[in-house]
Design brief:
- Chain B: It comes from Sphingomonas trueperi.
- Chain B: This is Acyclic terpene utilisation N-terminal domain-containing protein.
- The complex is a heterodimer.
- Chain A is of the alpha+beta class.
- Chain A is built from four helices and four strands; from the N terminus they run αββααββα.
- The two termini of chain A are 22 Å apart.
- In chain A, 50% of the residues are buried.
- Chain B is α+β, with helices and mostly antiparallel strands.
- Classes of the chains: A alpha+beta, B alpha+beta.
């Protein structure tokens, strides 16, 4: 199972940080997100991305996680040399993150 | 007395947004207010430079076109308009809209300009710590603009003074929507939980079509019908700051629980602390309920006392970016593109080009991908992109020139070379005490 099978993602930007939400299609899958979509796994999946600091916020009432990746936009949208300066295409690259039911929330914490 | 709900439509989510959806909202959305959000982070810095060359300019160049299209229908239906398209010159924009209204036979149209966001004089010459990176504002050599994010107060005041069109410069995007609510319901801006909930609604609407199915479709996973006729959203807001979200029947797009959740979290950092001029909003208790097709109820949200300081965006001149691109196809395309990149880099070193941060990527392979994984199949075509930074336009141009020289000096089969140079207006952020910022309203009548 891949992340895109159970969740959808939207990416935004603020200055030099990239933000994306990961939202369960079915709120019943939220515990799977909590267990499998962790900061270390996200950073390992986006191995080509340089990040100063990464934070995950949990929104159980919405069945969603919110990720903030500081320093991810090579200096910020307005001065970045990157083709996709906003990093709009970033969140979509998470959709093939493997979701393994053997992962447990306890392991993630 | 329990005031009737009001309807606020989102007519634009960025400066270049489509115009027809706003007209559709005015004509068929039964609106009370229409909001055009047209000001990206650095737009105002560019506008400030325009104003320096033309004292009457410096506002969104599309403002007059938007007004020309919607004003007759808006006035006939009593729809009042709020927009931040005033950019670096809200008063100039108000006069230009007044002149347009007179030309269109809309005499007497009352237009308000909200000013006070321009804090360049406060920021220049002082050392304000930057909040998005180490250092202070004094480290930014060539500052061209500094604008504070104002709150909803001056917008509500302008509406109370009878303005039919309110034109601002920099305000927090949600405030464009909270202002009409505060005016219509007579809310106190000190009621933090209420203004927090109102901020949720404003935030949901501020990107217009991104709530109704734009920036959402993904073939096979998330279907959205009619994106070429995407309908923009409106909110029917009640006096308790709950709302029902909708769009015009028959318009394209889809307003769903999923699209609402995505937009709620869009560009939000800590969902428990969304700091605006009027409130620190808390999104964690927001809930959506589907009332019918393209009809979603939004409730919940909270707020805490507003911060003492306002966020300020500082625009500064940051030199130039030079770029060149060229395409390769067929077997071995990737290898020839990589050879081409190496040649350009060596050439720039040989001629001593004063460029920094030079980087080469292959579009179709590794230009936006950040997984770092090699492709499973060798692509049939790739496009080399070489880009770097320079202090002058002349130096930046050397990059594109060396890429174009690959036509006759590089690997075989390079086609479609392009070269570009652009000035960089970068943005840094700081905070200044809210008490130092004095919003003002100028009324103009057509």
């Amino acid at each position: 199972m891949l992340l895109g099978d159970i969740a959808h993602v939207r990416t935004g930007d603020k200055g030099d940080l990239s933000q994306f939400s990961v939202i369960a299609f079915d709120p019943a899958d939220y515990p799977r997100l909590l267990a499998a979509v962790t900061v270390p796994r996200v950073l390992a999946h986006l191995a080509g991305l340089r990040v100063r600091q990464a934070t995950r916020y949990a929104l159980p009432g919405l069945g969603a996680l919110n990720f903030v990746l500081e320093g991810a936009l090579s200096g910020g949208v307005t001065r970045s040399l990157a083709l996709d300066a906003h990093g709009k295409s970033l969140g979509a690259q998470l959709l093939d993150l493997p979701i393994d039911d053997a992962l447990r929330v306890e392991d993630a914490e | 007395m329990r005031p009737e709900p009001i309807r606020i439509g989102a007519g634009a989510g960025f400066a270049g947004d489509r115009i027809e959806p706003a007209l559709e909202l005015v004509e068929q959305g039964d609106l009370d207010f229409l909001v055009f959000e047209c000001l990206a982070e650095r737009t105002i810095a560019a506008a400030q430079q325009l104003r320096q060359s033309d004292p009457h300019g410096g506002f969104d160049p599309l403002l007059l076109e938007r007004m020309r299209r919607v004003l007759p229908a808006a006035r006939a239906r009593g729809v009042r308009i709020v927009t931040n398209a005033g950019a670096a010159n809200p008063v100039g924009a108000a006069h230009a809209v007044a002149a347009l209204a007179r030309d269109m036979g809309l005499q007497g149209l009352r237009i308000a300009a909200v000013t006070g966001d321009d804090v360049l004089d406060l920021v220049r010459g002082a050392e304000h710590p930057l909040i998005d990176r180490p250092g202070t504002s004094a480290d930014l050599a060539r500052i061209v603009s500094a604008n504070a994010y104002l709150g909803a107060g001056p917008i509500a005041d302008a509406l109370a003074q009878g303005a039919e069109v309110v034109i601002t410069g920099r305000v927090g995007d949600p405030a464009l929507f909270v202002g009409p609510m505060v005016h219509a319901f007579g809310w106190s801006l000190d009621d933090a939980p209420l203004i927090g909930r109102a901020t949720v609604i404003g935030h949901l609407l501020e990107c217009a079509g991104q709530l109704t199915g734009g920036y959402f479709a993904d073939d096979g996973r998330k279907q959205v019908p009619g994106l070429a006729r995407l309908g923009f959203p409106f909110a029917e807001v009640s006096a308790d700051a709950s709302a029902v979200l909708g769009k015009v029947a028959g318009s394209g797009g889809a307003l769903t629980l999923a699209s609402c959740k995505e937009q709620l979290l869009y560009e939000i950092l800590d969902p428990g602390a969304y700091a605006q001029a009027d409130v620190v909003a808390d999104f964690r208790s927001v809930r959506f309920a589907e009332l019918g097709p393209d009809r979603i109820a939004v409730s919940g949200g909270d707020g805490r006392q507003r911060p003492d300081a306002l966020k300020v965006s500082i625009g500064y001149d940051d030199g130039f970016i030079g770029e060149g691109q060229i395409s390769y196809a067929g077997p071995g395309a990737v290898g020839r593109a990589r050879l081409a990149a190496a040649i350009v880099e060596e050439r720039l070193a040989i001629i001593g080009a004063p460029v920094t941060e030079l980087r080469s990527t292959l579009i179709g392979l590794d230009s936006v991908d950040r997984t770092g994984r090699p492709p499973e199949v060798d692509p049939r075509e790739v496009r080399l992109r070489v880009v770097g930074r320079a202090a002058t336009a002349e130096a930046a141009a050397l990059i594109g020139r060396e890429v174009e020289a690959l036509y006759t000096n590089g690997p075989f089969g390079g086609g479609g070379a392009t070269a570009a140079v652009r000035p960089v207006l970068a943005v840094a952020s700081t905070l200044i005490p809210a008490a130092q910022v004095r919003p003002a309203i100028t009324l103009v009548e057509a």
